[in-house]
Amino acid sequence: MASLYNQIPSVSAVFAFYSSFSAITVLFRRIMDDFVPKRFRDYVALKVEDFFSYYFRFRSSVTFVIEERWEYVDNQTFRAAEVYLPTRLARLSTGKLVVGSSSLKNPTNHLKLGIPINTVIIDEFEGIHLKWTLHSSETKFYAYEKRCFYLTCKKEFREQIMTDYFTYLAKSAENIMGHRENLKIYTYNQERYQWQPANFEHHTTFETLAIEPHLKKTLIDDLESFSKGKDYFKSVGRAWKRGYLLYGPPGTGKSSMVAAIANHMKYHIYDLQLQSVKDDAELRKILTSTKNRSILLIEDIDFGSDASRKRQTNDKEKDGEPQKDKKKFEVGVSLSGLLNFVDGLWSSCGEERIIIFTTNHKEKLDPALLRPGRMDIHILMDYCTPFVFKKLMAMYLKIDDHVLFDPIEKLVFEVSVTPAEVAQQLMASKNADIALKGLLESLETKKMRKEEDTRVEGEGDIEDPETK
């Protein structure tokens, strides 16, 4: 007991140590003030404060990690946060903001706020204090960005966040997407293994689209029924999707029809070039990374002849020489690989999606693509009709009638002219007389060529007496 008492330092020793420590502290502070910049001192102090606050807060808080990908497909909770959080950027805890504009005409009126990396975004739900942070890093083996959100709150609110807040997050994002104005068109970047967006500013709507009234009504009614059909599709055990085939000659408005559908539904467009996809595995990865409430566009599809040609080439190479290099015998995307996403098991990965195929030659498509359930509606985009011509005339020349309308209407019935050709002639001049006269002359020339071709074909069918 006496030895323990003897080990306790005296009061004078404690004061001596305190005095020495204080002197060293004052000296160190003066050295820091004289030689270390204030910004650096503030930065170190902030980091020390963050470290200790994080350490003591860790025991009483919980953090939800929301990764961008989940079970091979896009994490819809991540997408919901990505849509919802820009509405909370006014509550940023720091002065860092990501701003941008894609409008070349008036960029200041179209400034948008983006989600900064590693910056705390504050939210509040039913009195619960929430902190969001977006983290980003590049993967080790692939040159694509891996992102995730951190959501932190007190542990006592964990169950409420799981049951109520995430539901609120999903509904808020759905409501925002339903009223979004800026649409995107995506193209797939194979080097970075991700879809890359660009602003979609095609202004064609069903009001400006030159198509027959019955076709427009049928299509709008079908789209409206589809958008409200979540419960119906679930009740019949079908994936919530719709497939359209747009077919017809070039220049008949297939691309404009896609734009009108996108603008009507407020859906983003994913433009996929099948020729650039390596194989079925890559196709699945590409398609499952598309978002809900979107359009998958596959233009100029001609799988019947193309797939057949690839299979024949592959068979010849296998018969001709041994298989030394596997890459040499890759045949790209198979028809079954595409159909498995259109209406197979993989079609259930996502919901509220529209798939649109376009072709100039419907007769060349593989019959398997045309079966019911794969392309629900086939839409013929045909040559110009009198109604379509009058619609174009009203849009481009701002007139409803003209003395040249009757002769032009007659020629429209006799020759095959596309809406694109008519529009090109109507845009030649703002003067209606000049524009319509040019269109009339163009149609007359087409008629003369058609009659000449018919005459030549008729002469070719006449049997030559010397061949008997």
UniProtKB/TrEMBL annotation:
Which cofactor does this sequence's record say it needs? Mg(2+)
Q: Matching SMART domains, A to Z?
A: AAA
Instruction: Give residue spans, biased composition: Acidic residues.
Output: 459-468
Q: Provide the alphabetized UniProt keywords.
A: ATP-binding, Hydrolase, Magnesium, Membrane, Nucleotide-binding, Transmembrane, Transmembrane helix
Catalysed reactions, as listed in the record: ATP + H2O = ADP + phosphate + H(+)
Q: Which domain of life is it from?
A: Eukaryota
Q: What transmembrane ranges does the database entry give?
A: 12-31
The keyword Membrane is assigned to this record = yes
Domain (AAA+ ATPase) ranges: 240-385
Q: Signal peptide: which range, if any?
A: none
Listed Basic and acidic residues bias regions: 448-458
Q: Name one GO molecular function term.
A: ATP binding
Stretch list, region Disordered: 448-468
Q: InterPro entries, from UniProt?
A: AAA+_ATPase, AAA_N_dom, At3g28540-like_C, ATPase_AAA_core, ATPase_AAA_CS, Mitochondrial_chaperone_BCS1, P-loop_NTPase
Family label = Belongs to the AAA ATPase family. BCS1 subfamily.
The identity of this protein, by name, is AAA+ ATPase domain-containing protein
